[in-house]
Design brief:
ten-stranded antiparallel β-sheet, 18 helices, eight-stranded antiparallel β-sheet
């Protein structure tokens, strides 16, 4: 099967049959997860040895000897030994080093065996970490209590000031961060215990139960002892013997929740792993007996019997609810602890549901364990000495150092920021990569690619990237092309790119062992492969059959591999081709647990694979991204898109990941939310699940619901298995294609907001798609909620997750909220139950925020570049709102202007081989903050922007204008069906204003039905429908910025602000008919729009001398229109009125002439416009007003 997945066989039938006979269990057919292929704690000797050791076992007791010595570098060192030595090599003393970093109280604790130092994985921690070392503010020793106390005074975070008093772009500005905190690390010498406290409250404790252990390396096994370990016929020689490390980490408090340690398909709040039941066992591991069937079922749903595993594996069609580890591992854990002086919590009503209510403080803290070896994590919730609900965790690693960092918090954002300063922040994505990606295994040939690409345009469905899986290659030789099906790859890529789009090809880490394959021949000659314990190149089986694996743990091998992505070395590639790394756990079909043997070696035999297994995929990912950056010279370096399946701490610096081989069912739809949220908690926010499910065939309802959710994944890709039916968006037929189109368009409309969130993630480490607790840390109701998510601070995503759902209930925390589609207002905390149809995708706007959008429907992200903004203003209970928007070129590294607060990482601070640094030619950036207070909308630079970069940056190409402002929360009933509009120009007095009547009409639309058939038939039907006028009798292409006419029905459908269709028709003359030439330095036209809640809008064009005009709307409202985002501006808007306006420069006219029907944007007078009208150019004085008619695109 492996050799016949394309149109032709690539190897002999005999070889294929032999492979199937030997390794059939690993072959990728659509079969379910096979637990027997993988280990459990019971079959992993190191986990079995340590999991059931009781607390405070004297054999595990350790003590600190003497006192700490504090060095000039700020680190304090001491010696630790066993309290009850046995007299053998296992009693060697350990060194203990305690080191503070940065200004927020992050403290590193590391134990090592100085006689046999443990391997420390390179290139995971950021290069700048050492520079952030600092001295403790105080170190005291108390002989009476036998403790040493280290003190760090965490500096308060600065709060941006004048531009917005309630500025909440991220929770750097939370009250906890705005005050100085005293952080103490108290080390009890005997028995050894290390406790972190914040302002006198213990938040994290090491060795509270005395279960810490560090197995010392020995020279040879003891009598009658064997170090070999066998599983499923595979033998691990373990040449260095048992070297396990066990960390006992507790999080005190009441009702403690712990999060993180991806990747697995399970809940956001990690469940207890000690009270679950083995199949057929009616008792928990703790010996408690469930008395009723309900209790048994509840126990199964809230706990597991197996610890969480961190070990990167190729897991085929994984289970949707399991602690089993999947493709990636990040050993970071966050904890939420509520403290109370009460002896027990009380029951309370919150949001219509019973909830536990505590009256104490809430603290967030975390721990990062710096160890890439196989690890099991036990989670137990109990009282102990800390009160009800404390969380105790036991980290059992096969090898590596006992090395961890305390993250003191105290808020979710602070923990995220502190972790990012250790391993880096998220890579700044190329702008196109935030659009929709279309993928399947596999698009057959160049004709297939052309048809798929074209059908997206024909059906007005935006997308940005088309992907090719393994069948595009010549016999699974990566960076080659199947000449029969892809004979002209460069021409194919350039054709797709001509419409502003990109392509992606797959490149996996296994290299086909073929002496005629140049990549293999060179790697073999230079000894660049992973080796066996005896020094031969390792031979494993994967897609090509016999394969070798590049030793990417070696930086020299990574540099060599990066060079292979040059245009000269990758024939048929272009700068518009990006890369997908799959199977990089690494996957080895004939290996133990479908991966590499642990006793293989790296770096010329000096490092065992077991020491770096979880980091292998990250290294391969980084080398590939490095190669794409090197395709151009340093001045033109572009940001790469490289998707990876495997990951480790630090992968966020490189690029996105996805959640692997999910299934087309409702369970996998639901679990994709906690999986993606958990990746965000662990710093890897650029992630998403395969929309529609990789395996199986989703029905139209499931597909629609998945697109409605997937539109909010940070990484948004549809993908499908080779054996599934074609499922591009149009394959489901109407009305589902329309619903899917709407979901994708919603993402594109929110692109300015999404891109701004990614910049925040790059700057601070905050996740893009956030768990509710990130924004509402004190709300107990949301502490474990994982069926909803926050997109940044402002949007609450509440997808429909069950088949045939008739309604969707959503808990809204305290504050003001608005329905994104209807504008309906709610005051939280409350639970809103919304009736739903298949078209509904509930989305709520949080009061107090301004959300930037681009409402013009375009074919791609690039096509929308330069389009004006809509600002969605959602006032809070005080009538205020804040927000920001960020732009750069979306391509290169010019945003790294000197002085910009950004986290340099190993991927962005190295010279030619890695990327760009501060010597790059800076195109810079633009950042603007909006604040809405007392009816005034202010625009300016944020106070934390560096003055060296100008007012919030200096990026001339981002001369984006604001076209529309929508203020939510007005009482529409106050307006009659007609209203007066008064307009006057600069220099005129208000009494001279012209008065016009505005008639308000309501309209309705209907949806066409359809049925699913073949891809070709559906596409053909769509083309016919388009030609006969479904998009307007005189339809023209606006997807790339040109003009097209549409019917008024289509105009209404696409121009509505809130979905309920209503448009104001105006009959207004063009005012101030001056005929001055357009100046290149001024915006001479201002279009002022009127909109009412639930309505679309229509323009009034006003000509004035210096692009400023005033108008009075309804109740004498005065509006001052500034010159866009390029300067600080204020616009006075009443709390119950919508003003929509734009100021378009002549340059923008040239780039994007005309009037886009989708949002009623301004129509500029230009040669292109006159040509489009096929009329005779007229002087300005003859231009009156423009209105859409069914019979023709434009009338004047």
């Amino acid at each position: 099967r492996l050799f016949t997945m394309g149109r032709r066989a690539r190897s002999s039938a005999a070889l294929a049959l032999a492979f199937v006979a030997l390794f059939g269990a690993q072959i990728r057919s659509a079969s379910a997860f096979k637990a027997s292929d993988f280990k459990t704690c019971a079959t992993s000797s190191f986990c079995e040895r340590h999991r059931h050791v009781p607390a405070h076992d004297p054999r595990r007791a350790h003590r600190l000897v003497g006192r700490f010595a504090v060095g000039d570098d700020g680190a304090a060192t001491a010696t630790v030994e066993r309290s009850n030595p046995s007299g053998d090599a296992g009693d060697r003393p350990l060194s203990l080093t305690v080191t503070p970093y940065g200004d927020e109280g992050v403290i590193r604790v590391r134990f090592d065996d100085d006689a046999r130092p443990r391997y420390e994985v390179p290139d995971v921690l950021v290069d700048s970490l050492d520079a952030s070392r600092r001295a403790f503010d105080a170190v005291t020793h108390d002989a009476g209590t036998g403790t040493t106390t280290f003190v760090v005074r965490a500096k308060p975070r600065s709060v941006p000031g004048d531009e917005a008093k309630d500025y909440r772009l991220d929770d750097d500005k939370s009250s906890d961060d705005a005050t100085e905190r005293v952080i103490k690390l108290v080390v009890t010498h005997n028995p050894l215990r290390v406790a972190l406290s914040v302002n006198g409250r213990e938040t994290a404790v090491f060795n509270d139960e005395g279960r810490f252990d560090f197995e010392r390396e020995r020279s040879a096994p003891g009598k009658d002892e064997t170090w070999k370990e066998t599983f499923n016929g595979h033998t691990d020689t373990r040449p260095r013997g048992p070297m396990a490390v066990v960390l006992d980490l507790s999080f005190p408090g009441d009702d403690v929740h712990v999060y993180g340690i991806p990747e697995r398909a399970t809940s956001l709040s990690l469940r207890d792993t000690t009270k679950g039941r083995e199949e057929g066992d009616e008792r928990s591991l703790a010996g408690e007996e469930a008395e009723t069937d309900d209790a048994k079922e509840r126990l199964k749903k809230t706990s597991y019997s197996e610890p969480y595993r961190l070990y990167n594996l190729d897991v085929f069609e994984y289970e949707h609810d399991s602690p089993f580890g999947l493709y990636g591992s990040i050993p970071v854990m966050h904890a939420r602890s509520r403290y109370t002086s009460k002896s027990s919590p009380k029951k309370a009503k919150k949001g219509g549901k019973a909830a536990l209510e505590y009256d104490g403080e809430v603290f967030y803290s975390g721990v990062y364990v710096h160890n890439p070896t196989e690890t099991y994590v036990e989670v137990r919730r109990d009282g102990g000495s800390h009160g009800s609900g404390a969380a105790r965790t036991l980290w059992m690693s096969e090898s590596g150092a006992a090395d961890f960092f305390f993250l003191p918090g105290p808020s979710p954002g602070a923990v995220a920021r502190q972790y990012s300063r250790l391993t880096g922040t998220s890579a700044m994505p190329p702008a196109f990569s935030l659009g929709y990606h279309q993928c399947r295994w596999n698009y057959r040939d160049e004709a297939d690619v052309k048809e798929v690409d074209g059908t997206f345009d024909e059906l007005d469905i935006p997308y940005d990237v088309l992907w090719l899986d393994i069948e595009h290659t010549d016999g699974k030789r990566y960076m080659t092309w199947d000449a029969a099906h892809f004979p002209t790859p460069r021409r194919m890529i350039e054709d797709v790119a001509s419409r502003g789009r990109k392509m992606v090809t797959i490149v996996d880490p296994h290299v086909k062992k073929d002496p005629n394959y140049p990549t293999h021949a060179e790697a073999e000659r230079k000894r660049l492969y992973v080796r066996t314990p005896t020094g031969e190149d390792f031979d494993g089986w994967c897609w090509p059959g016999s394969s070798a694996y590049l030793d990417v743990v070696s930086s020299a091998v990574r540099d060599w591999w990066a060079e292979k992505f040059s245009l000269a070395n990758y024939p048929g590639s272009t700068h518009d081709l990006h890369v997908w790394n799959d199977m990089n756990e690494p996957s080895v079909f004939n290996g133990p647990e479908i991966t590499m043997r642990k006793d293989l070696t790296h770096v010329d035999g000096t490092v065992e694979h077991r020491e770096v297994h979880n980091a292998f995929g990250m290294y391969y990912h980084a080398a590939t991204a490095q190669g794409l950056r090197m395709r151009k010279n340093a001045e033109e370096t572009e940001r790469p898109l490289v998707l990876s399946r495997a990951f480790f701490a630090g992968s966020q610096r490189v690029g996105p990941v996805w959640t692997g081989d999910n299934a087309a069912d409702w369970d996998h739809l639901r679990v994709s939310i906690p999986m993606t949220l958990t990746l965000g908690v662990a710093g890897l926010t650029w992630s998403g699940a395969d929309v529609g499910g990789f395996f199986g065939d989703p029905d139209p309802e499931l597909a629609t619901r998945w697109y409605q959710l997937g539109a909010f994944y940070p990484f948004f890709r549809g993908h499908a298995h080779l054996d599934t039916k074609r499922r591009e968006p149009w394959m489901f037929g109407e009305p589902y294609t329309g619903f899917i189109r709407n979901a994708i368009r919603r993402r594109y409309a929110l692109m300015p907001y999404l891109y701004t969130l990614f910049e925040e993630a790059h700057r601070t480490g905050a996740p893009v798609l956030r768990a509710m607790f990130h924004e509402f840390p004190d709300d107990d109701v949301v502490a474990a909620k994982d069926d909803v998510a926050m997109l940044g601070p402002a949007l609450l995503v509440a997808p429909v997750l069950f088949k045939n759902a008739q309604e969707r209930s959503t808990y809204l925390p305290a504050g003001t909220w608005y329905d994104y589609d209807t504008g309906e207002k709610f005051e939280g905390p409350t639970t809103v139950t919304k009736p739903t149809t298949i078209e509904d995708a509930p989305l709520y706007v949080r009061g107090g925020f301004v959300v930037p959008r681009r409402d013009r429907a375009r074919r791609s992200v690039a096509a929308a570049r330069g389009d004006p903004l809509t600002l969605l203003v959602a006032p809070d209970e005080r009538g205020n709102a804040v927000g920001d928007v960020y732009f750069d070129d979306g391509i290169g590294y010019g945003y790294l202007a000197e002085g910009l607060e950004t986290k340099k990482t190993s991927e962005t601070s190295r010279s030619r081989s890695g990327s760009v640094g501060k010597n790059a030619p800076f195109t810079k950036f633009t950042r603007r903050v909006f604040s809405f207070t007392d009816g005034v909308l202010n625009c300016g630079a944020p106070s934390y922007s560096p003055s060296a970069s100008g007012a919030g940056g200096d990026f001339p190409d981002a001369a984006t204008r604001v076209e529309r402002v929508v203020v939510m929360g007005a009482d529409v009933s106050a307006y009659a069906s007609t209203a007066e509009v008064r307009v006057f120009s600069k220099g005129e007095k208000e009494k001279d204003a012209r008065t016009f009547r505005v008639d308000v009409e309501r309209a309705a639309t209907s949806e066409r039905g359809g049925e699913k058939t073949s891809a070709r038939a559906v596409a053909a039907r769509a083309r016919r429908r388009s030609r006969r006028g479904a998009l307007g009798a005189n339809a023209r292409d606006v997807r790339d910025g040109s003009v097209r006419g549409v019917t008024s029905t289509e105009l209404l459908k696409n121009a509505s602000v809130f979905g309920r269709l209503c448009v104001a028709y105006m009959s207004i003359e063009l005012l101030s008919r001056r005929e001055e030439a357009l100046s290149s330095n001024a915006c001479d036209y201002t279009a002022i729009f009127i909109s009412i809640l639930g309505c679309g809008s229509y323009p009034v064009m006003v000509k004035s001398e210096n692009s400023k005009a005033s108008m009075s709307i309804f109740s004498g409202l005065m509006v001052s229109v500034g010159n866009g985002l390029g300067s600080t501006s204020s616009w006075r808007i009443s709390g119950s009125t919508w003003l929509l306006y734009t100021c378009v420069s002549p340059q923008q006219c040239t780039k994007s002439p005309g009037f886009n029907p989708h949002t009623c944007a301004i129509m500029q007078v230009s040669s292109e416009y006159d040509a489009m009208l096929k009329g005779t150019p007229r002087p300005m004085s003859q231009l009156r007003w423009y209105i859409w008619h069914d019979s023709s695109p434009l009338a004047t």
